[in-house]
Each structure stands twice: as structure tokens, then as C-alpha cells.
Design a protein that fits this description.
By secondary structure, this protein is α+β, with helices and mostly antiparallel strands. The strands form three sheets. Strands 1-7-4-2 form a four-stranded mixed beta sheet. Strands 3-6-5 form a three-stranded antiparallel beta sheet. The chain has a two-stranded antiparallel ribbon with strand order 8-9. Helix 5 packs across helix 10 and helix 6 crosses helix 9. It is globular, with a radius of gyration of 20 Å.
Amino acid sequence: MPLDEQNCPSKTIGSWDELMALTSAYMATGIRYAYRGHADSSWDLKPSLLRLVPGADAERLLRLERETTEEFAAQAHLYLSAEHLPHDLPGVSWWPLMQHYGAPTRLLDWTESPFVGAYFAVERLVDREGAVYVIDAPAIQERLQDRYTNPDAGLREVMPTLFTADARCEVLFWSQTERRSARLVAQQGLFTLAENIAASHDRMFEVINVYAYHPVVPPAARWVIPAVVKDEILKRLRTANIAAHSLFPGLDGLGRSIAEVARIGPRIRFVDTVKGTVFKKA
């Protein structure tokens, strides 16, 4: 079943207040929703490895994944100290680190924060419509529990199938529990990955509406953010400390944050009346 208005209805966000009302409705359910922001609403839910070689079959993708993971693992020690590297052989545990540094993987980034999701929908491509995907993450887990006898079915149970070309085209969530990067923690990040490496991640919408159980809000949705409100939302997010300097700890995040300030206008100035010093606040 392709992604459509039936299994993932769209809602246009016309202002910051509308975004707040919608996020409040989802947060009030108490369900662990996952959010993913796209700066361009036309982008597919497709991992970087699949975008790198469009149309490639599973066998070719598995071979490329193995080669890139081994190459990354062979050279990562030149740039990172041992305590920041996985201890096992090149494989699943290396993928989040590769994703962090821009190497192609089968992972797709999500966040548990609707505001972080909104940030990635508005932080660039200011002339294009953005979008935030919202999905009921526990519904995916319910599907896995139907397939496996272990009530805590997850990555460990399906791992043997990840490296076979004829694996099922189902998607699961993975929240890395060991050696999380500062960026992953700041962004409240988690990942989806497909058992079959060639599968598009929009296949998850086939099961979400079957296994989700909360009737108040759609269990899967697409919030569309018009280009004309991107700057307004970016400004409001910045006052809540959702900005490049907080989501990308380090000098690169600072640089991106300065670029955001330049884009959305001058900051408010405060004067220290004792010392006569001018302070700036976002």
C-alpha cells in the first residue's frame, strides 16, 4: 500500500499557534510518537544508501553496505579515539556512527520531539514547502510481537534476516542504547530500518493503522509547512532553544546557528545599566 491520504492524511500548518495546537493534541495521548522533518515536502522516506544507488536490488545494496561499513570501520580510528568506537566487527553497531558522519546507511533518522522534527522541516530550503511525518512508534512494535514469540521482539530477533536479499519488507524502530553521540541525545534521536535493505520505509504505513489503537488523532500523519511560515516557526523554535547550536553540539553547530540568526533577523539587545555593556539574546 503506497503512502496516501488514507493511511497518512496531510494537515497544513499555517502558523506557530497551529503547530503548537497539533503537537499538544499528539503529546496529550501519552503515546510515543516519532517525528521526521523534511525541508522539502516532496522527499521520499528513503535512506541515504537507497538514494545513492536508485533502483539497485537487495543483493547489490547488501554488497555496497558491507563494503562501506568495512571501509568506515577501517579508518574511523584515525579520527576518533577508541572509546567512541564500537568494539565489535563492522556491522549493525557501526551504522549510527556512520549516519552521524554522513556515510550512506540503511537507517532513517527520527526524533521523539515534535519540535525537533519541525526544526528540520524549516531550517533550510526557505523557498520550498516542508513537512513533518508523524507515526505511532508502538504500533510498529506491536506488529513485531505478532511475528516473534519473544514479547520484546526487536532488532536482536530480526538481525539474522537483515543480511539476506529475500528478507521481508517490514520496518522496525531502533533506539540506540549504547554509546550514543551527543548529537543523538540532543536530538532525541532514533532510527527506522527495513528488514529488506531495498524496501522503502513508507511500507510502515501498511501496518500502523492496523495496530494503532488511539482514536483521537491519526496514528500516522503528514504535517505540511508552507514556505511562508518557515521563518516564523524557526524564530519560535529558537526561543525554545531548538536551534543548530543545541541540536549539533560543537563548532559546526555554532556556525549553523549564526547562519540562522543572519537569516531570521537581528537579535534583541539588552543593556547592562551598571557596566553599560550591550548584551545580545536570541
